[in-house]
Fold this protein.
Amino acid sequence: MNIHEYQAKEIFREFGVRVLEGVHCRSVSEALAAYDSLGSKVVAVKSQIHAGGRGKGTLYDPESGDEIMKGGVKIAFSKNDVEEFSRNICGNLLVTKQTGAEGKIVSNMYVESGCDIDHEFYLAILVDRDRKSILVMASTEGGVDIEEVAENNPEAIHKIWADSSLGLLEEDCASLSKSLGLTGDSSKEMIEMLGSLYRMFVERDCSMIEINPLVRTKTGSMVALDAKVGLDENANFRHPWRDDVRDLSEEEDVEIRANDLGLSYVKLDGNIGCLVNGAGLAMASMDVIKLYGGEPANFLDIGGGATRESITAAFQIILEDENVEGILVNIFGGIIRCDMVAMSVIEASKELGLEVPLVVRFSGTNHEEGKAILDSGEISIHTVGSLSEGARKIVDLIGGGN
Amino acid sequence: MAIWINEESKILIQGITGKQGTFHGTRMVRYNTNVVGGVTPGKGGQEVDLDGHQVPVFDSMMEAVSETGADVSAIYVPARFAAAAIHEAAEAFNENGGGLIVCITEGIPTLDMIRAVDKVNEFEKVRLIGPNCPGIISPGLNGGCKVGIMPAFIHKKGRIGIVSKSGTLTYEAVAQTMSVDEGQTTCVGIGGDPVSGTGFIDCLSAFEEDPDTVAVVMIGEIGGSAEEEAAEWVCDNMSKPVIGFVAGSTAPPGKRMGHAGAIISGGKGTAAEKFAAFEKAGIHVARDPSEIGQVLVGALIEAGLRES
């Protein structure tokens, strides 16, 4: 789960991480009022969407598709600038490297005081899967893509790891600060900031905190100019505050609905819908469809606790995608019984008036019973014995493939 | 033989009085797995009926392990209590000669797992498999030892080891070995979470040492770099043939594909990279999981372990 920059900075303040003053706005008039209240001549007007690359993105009119402005984060030197920029941002479509071509409508902005930047750094805290610990990663090259730095100038990236019982050691923080070339008060502030961010990471169950750039100001202060925070959804049960910061408009409506039904769904661009039990098998089913020349329309794992209701809902979700021309059902019965799935498939196809070709592959618990139910039904369903046979069949039926 | 569990293993079920614990405990017993008891705090002294088998319930793992001499624990407790259950099991096994913890529970917070794995690693004789995994099974001649939620009937005692990050895709791999008339020594589902206990290399190394295992099927998925590291390990250390598949070639970057760990982030952890690492390490690659059986046969023939 991701949150907006303005929300992340609110948490930063709570944990004593230095940020500039700023106001969350939802309209041009709010942005203008924010400008007046901040009392800073220079301000940044920042689009708030969950995807990165906002500064280098482009804003478009969602109706006409015309380009409106380059840059989703703008520096305003006057109230007039604030008016122009906020008008160009608010309600328009922001396309960045991370949003994909469809972009995101910007409905939130953040107007933030300016500051005199002396140097830009990069700082991130995340989970290191290989070391099974929390990793702090910093670079002297901030404000640019960290992947590019890692590629072209890996020695500019410095890392320290937390001890799972002792936390982040002060000596490690000091040495990280030193590697970044920080001295005096800047170094002291950096070490304090690392402690605060680590505390926030742990207490708020974050999956990632990324500050790019983290700046040293002309007066030597260390300030988080940007904030990208990801939260570990598995820990939602102990963080009721997350309900208030969750922005459902940033999530795919259908993915939320699927989630509420115990389904895991991700929409893709192809035309073959997939309905599978298990995440690995669901991915493998997509891969095999592609291998035989088809294009999967979605990832869909119905989970171990699937019921007739959730399977019907799964079909409904798949069919809402207008691109879908055929469906492959691939079930390896364990706890889930193939005969139960077969009944659900028949019910769902009747209830939804299924018109596209349907190929079903059953294996595992009660697969023979399941197949018999499908073969004896009046609905035309193609049953197959293996995943590759199923993938070939559905690709063939919709007339695609090579 | 098999790795880590066999027909002699004594199993405890943490969360035995819960719906999942009783349901899967019953199926474990039906497979002739030696379930010796369970733990549910506050329900010590009771008994649970697992398919006509009365097993005792204890209040704590410490008590359960010392009373029963168990050396394996299966955890079926809800996510919010699961990390504490791992800690408890680790301490209890450490005090009593060691043991294997198999955590089936899905959805445990990552930070809880970092601490739990760290705890387990303090003890040399304690191993953790999972979380968020189907478990581990060593088929025997009459049933076998099943610690987890996998459908037992698809397995058969044999000479192939299987290790996988996925659940149902592991079953697919099992079915593939069966389709070419090969059984399994042990099948381990290591789970798809970002932070977990036993990894690919632990399993590969145990299979390499197991005299009854002649070849290993390894199923990876996108995210992280465990597959690449395992491939390197195979190249340097493994004398037995390894057959590999990686799920997620078609997964878009930045999207979590069901498993918390199955995500391509910052362009890293793609299936293409993992397949390339497999090939470079001399692993026999199947691009379609339905071909694992045939690729396995080819590898066995090449190693002189099968004629056709």
